[in-house]
Amino acid sequence: MASTPPEKREPPSSPSWRLALLRYVLPGAVVLAGLVVMAFGSEIDLEGGAGILSAGLAIYFINWLFRAGVAGERQREDEDRAREHFDRHGRWPD
User: Fold this and answer.
1) Which pTM was predicted?
2) pLDDT at residue number 11
3) 3-state SS, one letter per residue, for the chain
4) Residue 69 or residue 34, greater confidence
5) Domain locations in the chain?
6) With contact defined as beta carbons under 8 Å apart, do 52 and 33 qualify?
7) Residues 16-24: contacts with CB under 8 Å, at least 24 apart
8) CB 3.0–4.6 Å: which of 48, 56, 63, 85 could bond 30 by disulfide?
């Protein structure tokens, strides 16, 4: 597997505005909508608002889990490159 050495890789760019919208604004808006329903509704609306609030939290945590998985994959790729370097040169890269 040929990959770019760590020295030649570009630093990760900041997330685009659409990605930030999906990661933070969408779950925040859904949570806020749930809070509004809970605050201004009747007793029955408390359950619905809690469901909406839970959906917003679920959106946020699914995004978080995906990012954690991608970060783990990057760490595995770095480890593989370091092992290849060790096999070729007999020392662990700095």
Assistant:
1) 0.65
2) 57
3) CCCCCCCCCCCCCCCCHHHHHHHHHHHHHHHHHHHHHHHHCCHHHHHHHHHHHHHHHHHHHHHHHHHHHHHHHHHHHHHHHHHHHHHHHCCCCC
4) 34
5) 17-89
6) yes
7) 22/63, 23/60, 23/63, 24/60
8) 56
Give the distance from CA 6 to its chain's centroid: 22
User: What is the rounded average pLDDT of the residues 9-26?
Assistant: 79
Question: For residue 86, what are the CA distances in angstroms to 22, 45, 72, 89?
Answer: 40, 61, 21, 5
Q: Tokens standing for 28?
A: 């925040």
Using the predicted structure, report yes or no on whether residue 32 has a pLDDT greater than 80.
yes
